[in-house]
Amino acid sequence: MFTRAIVRLPGSNFADGLTTVDLGSPHFDEVLHQHAHYCDGVRACGLELTVLDPDLRHPDSTFVEDAAILTPHAAILTRPGASSREGEVAAIRPVVQRFYSRILTIDSPGTVDGGDICEAEDHFFIGLSLRTNEEGARQLSAHLNALGYIASTIDIRSMTTILHLKSGMSYIGDDTLVVMEEMAANPQFGGFNLLRVSPAESYAANCVRVNQRVLIAEGFPHLRDELIARGFSPLTLNMSEFQKMDGGLSCLSLRF
Ligand code: CIR
Question: How far is the CA of 229 from the centre of ligand 1 (A)?
Fold first, then answer.
């Protein structure tokens, strides 16, 4: 069960953030609107939100998930792989310190983006990506092992369609992984129930279990129906403006 989440309001320069997709420029009014709905959705799942002010120094900072990894035992501050995002960690540190006494770090030359970390109960999958490097994964694995977790890596560096590991997979509880078709054959997923997402809906593979609900992006009816058929309770949110900046549902909050 989660009881809290941290979010950061998008700044007026949100459109100046990094992106690899060609979906047009986000409309700021709509960005704020969708963000407000996202916050309402997370609150509806029973979480108390800490809402941070926009940080105009970092246009991508509304994607708070990338700057920290929060476990029940400790918080791990990351070291984002994109230089424009490095300062986001110093900005989130005092907020994390309000809730955690044990704080670990990823140090140079290691890099880790929180979006590359998929927690499935006591097993953390760590994506090796253009943002998370092998040294970062090594440091993170050591931290997680010391905290009593299992960690393993999944190399997505040759996959051009996703930015982070969690752009392509999510753990939604009940031993179930939602996985984009391209990743589904990974032998590491052997012990899980797999819910495969078709290429046409692959953006929706980034979904988030929050207590009794599963947040999913709007406009992906096959995944939504399949979740319902398997007894999950999807909560649909319009993510179009965040998708334009390579962002998914999970990256808009830190849940703990
Ligand atoms: C970036 O490229 O870093 C941002 N525009 C998007 C980050 C999305 N984060 C995530 O999926 N965890």
Answer: 30
